[in-house]
């Protein structure tokens, strides 16, 4: 036989608690308000990100694989996907009721420049490895790009004790 444990007063008065009683089990679960609901801006961001990512990846494949003979269409598809991905933060700000454009700060420009440089260095390392048959230098350059991208985490989130 399972012993039933008493529930503390804080949980008994909690409006987000769901209690289930049956003959064999008694349990309490606390839900955080709104934790299991997807907001409209998150749904729109998810859809834009998925479609934009697929279009960008497909465009890159079309443009970079010579067997497909679709360089022009690939560039067009990739640019459309990239524009959708770039639009996501602006759409989220507009749906949150905040101004879409804010004044640029030096920190924002520096973080963006580091992100672009890290992505480019990682891409050059991948090209050196896969296309130009320079395995060891390509891996070294690719790792340098990964380190640059990893440096974005403490720059954006900060370091705490």
UniProtKB/TrEMBL annotation:
Transmembrane in keyword set: yes
Source superkingdom: Bacteria
Regions crossing the membrane: 43-65, 71-91, 111-132, 138-156
Keyword list, A-Z: Membrane, Transmembrane, Transmembrane helix
Protein name as it appears in the record: Uncharacterized protein
Native source organism of the sequence: Bifidobacterium leontopitheci
């Amino acid at each position: 036989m399972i012993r039933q444990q008493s529930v503390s007063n804080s949980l008994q008065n909690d409006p987000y608690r769901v209690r289930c009683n049956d003959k064999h089990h008694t349990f309490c679960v606390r839900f955080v308000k709104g934790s299991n609901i997807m907001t409209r801006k998150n749904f729109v961001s998810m859809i834009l990100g998925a479609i934009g990512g697929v279009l960008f990846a497909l465009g890159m494949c079309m443009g970079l694989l010579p067997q497909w003979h679709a360089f022009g269409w690939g560039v067009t598809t990739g640019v459309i996907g990239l524009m959708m991905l770039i639009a996501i933060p602006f759409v989220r700000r507009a749906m949150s009721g905040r101004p879409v454009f804010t004044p640029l700060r030096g920190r924002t420009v520096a973080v963006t420049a580091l992100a672009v440089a890290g992505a480019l260095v990682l891409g050059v390392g991948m090209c050196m490895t896969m296309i130009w048959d320079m395995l060891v230098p390509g891996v070294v350059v690719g790792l340098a790009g990964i380190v640059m991208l990893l440096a974005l985490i403490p720059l954006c989130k900060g370091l705490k004790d």
